[in-house]
Amino acid sequence: MIELPTDPDAAVSDLKDGSTVLIGGFGEAGLPFALVDALLRCDAGDLTVVNNNAGNGDTGLAALLGAGRVRKIICSYPRQVDSWIFDGLYRSGKIELELVPQGTLAERIRAGGAGIGAFYTPTGAGTPLAAGKEVRTIEGRQYVLEYPIHGDVALIRAHLADGMGNLVYRKTGRNFGPVMATAATTTIVEVDRIVAIGSLDPEIVVTPGIFVDRVVVAERRSVKESLGASA
Amino acid sequence: MSAYLTRSEMAQMVARDIPAGSYVNLGIGQPTLVSDYLTADQHVVLHTENGMLGMGPQAEGDEVDPDLVNAGKIAVTELPGAAYFHHADSFAIMRGGHLDICVMGAFQVSAGGDLANWHTGEPGAIPAVGGAMDLAAGAKEVFVMMTLFTKDGTPKLVPKCTYPLTGVGCVSRVYTERAVFHLTPDGISVKETFGTSIDELAESLDVAVVA
Fold this sequence. Notes:
The complex is a heterodimer of chains A (231) and B (211).
Chain A lengths: L7 H4 L8 E4 L9 H9 L5 E4 L9 H7 L3 E6 L8 H8 L4 E4 L2 H13 L4 E3 L13 E4 L2 E6 L4 E12 L4 E2 L8 H6 L1 E12 L18 E4 L5 H8 L1
Helix pairs in contact in A: 2-3
Chain B lengths: L6 H10 L6 E4 L18 E4 L3 E7 L17 E9 L2 H9 L5 E4 L3 E3 L4 E2 L15 H7 L2 E5 L11 E2 L12 E5 L3 E6 L2 E7 L4 H7 L4 E2 L1
Helix pairs in contact in B: 2-3
């Protein structure tokens, strides 16, 4: 059965130093704001963070980076107009960056959750991002060997959860949530609402509850509010 | 036409050349303009890497929903028949060869269709790749929209890319302000010129071009 922590702080209170944390979201859409803020308030450091980006403005993931709690970030697109905290840390050598093509990032996480040992992908073949990696020619085309990503913890945001931990998402807020939910030892989800068991149509469940460990309710923030907070 | 194309006119050219019924991904930045010139008759379905087919125009006013954005994180709308899916499925669409066309910008394109558009490789530059390599590897056709020369006049259609590559041999067409180029196994053919001639292009480029 899933746990229902009283608040986001309780949900992440047992996070250990050196953990790998998968954080959902594509920019603001699907970002688990409340869980990331709770992460900032807990003590765990020396973290490896997996997210598509490397934080925006001065809040959320960027604040976590700024507090020196993240040793390494695995992402596809760190450079953004408002990624100044990451930019500064990267230029001064204070954070390690593993840059991964976005589809390879998603597939490595998927593989991590699906019990796949490694896979060959055409993405990146013949580019600097294949440097040092095994390349195999399959049916005349070059493929790069990529390994899975596992998280100790996944922090994701969904729209609704039922009491079984079954999840549905909202629009493009879905993004990395469903694959990250499968790939972590402990998957913690913040949702708009928890609904009664039986009230989600089983046909529309996107993430089945078996992948979910903890669910906490947290109000969604609008882009406008978040931009205001980071301005 | 007697003058070089504007950015909007380049976008119009690309839109005109997208076959009816295509599934298309438009890269962030300039390629996004292409959507302004797609007609309803074309029935083009737009894909966005962050998990949607059937993406509509940019959202205005009350339509803005923080959970509905495009690859550039700009608020957009959904069209009737739209579908949402997670990132691994979205990139299966890209990498798996299901998209008919993607349109991207570029720093350089080589005569052999190599694409360089993610990193200048300069010291201190922060690399960011996003979905560019997946699109390059997976879309059936890669169209590039770019200026033909850098600000200092260096050609961007080159014998061999000097910037780090995004993909090898993937570009099939290059739309520029001066000409539309088709890259074929037999070489670079110039389909249309704007405010210039094939002779002038041949003179100013280090790659062979034919009509």
